[in-house]
Design goal:
- By secondary structure, the chain is of the alpha/beta class.
- The chain has 11 helices and 10 strands.
- Strands 3-2-1-4-8-6-9-7 form an 8-stranded mixed beta sheet, with helices on both faces.
Amino acid sequence: MSYAPIALFVYNRPTHTRQTVAALKKNGLAHQSDLIVYSDGPRIPEARDAVGQVRDYIATIDGFKSVTIIEHKENKGLASSISEGVTQVCQQHGHVIVVEDDLATSPYFLDYMNHGLDRFACEDRVMQIAGYMFPLDLRTNEDALFLPFISSWGWATWDRAWRHFDRREDVFSQILDDPSTKRRFDLNGRYKYSRILKAQQQKTIDSWAIFWYVSVFLRHGISLFPKKTMVRNLGFDGSGVNCTVSKFDQEELDLEYRVSVLPELIDVSPDADSVIDSIPATRLSFTSILNRVTVAVLGRS
């Protein structure tokens, strides 16, 4: 089995980056996985010192099969950094596991990602393996389930899926102009992701993840989610470029939980509607929602 390379995107948070890497290194597959670190350049002069601290640290990373560091002199912003980095790794390796610098992953995260990538490699409708799950009490016999949206908190994909990633805004009308389609896109009206489309059109945000969600949604794609979360976001402490302090609900990681049983049926789970209806409402401001994924779609812009 060929283990997928890990693309880690970092910027100006050395403490968070250390925690993210430390968690990844606790995975049994870390020493068999190639780590590719993308370090974005400072957006403002005041960020140079913190960016430098991050780069000093990533130069010392060990514990992986190999470590490759790609440093950008200029600031690309997360949207371009991720879209370009994921494209590069997918084209070179055929698949990728994507982690940002504020995510703590469970010790079985890489095992789950690689298991899903291997099992569903040839299933065109499956377009993502998601590591995050909302704090829900799911009554299912399987350890994972398919849902009709994506997550930007620790995920994986294949080149055959990512090649459909489309940053054209003209396709937004297919969602915004049809009430029933718009409602499905908004998770049965529970989360107004259609507002994010409009914000993207108005250039008030620049999110790679909203384009990825649209790309998956319009192709009727599905993502595999674990029954219990394997990712915890560390960034709701006000340290991120696009993240404010928040009381966003998250579960603590169950360090013993692992995904052993994957769905046999390649289709949206029969429990999908109840999952969506049970997702805890976010307590972030709308501005924060536009700049940070809280449930399924957005990432740092």
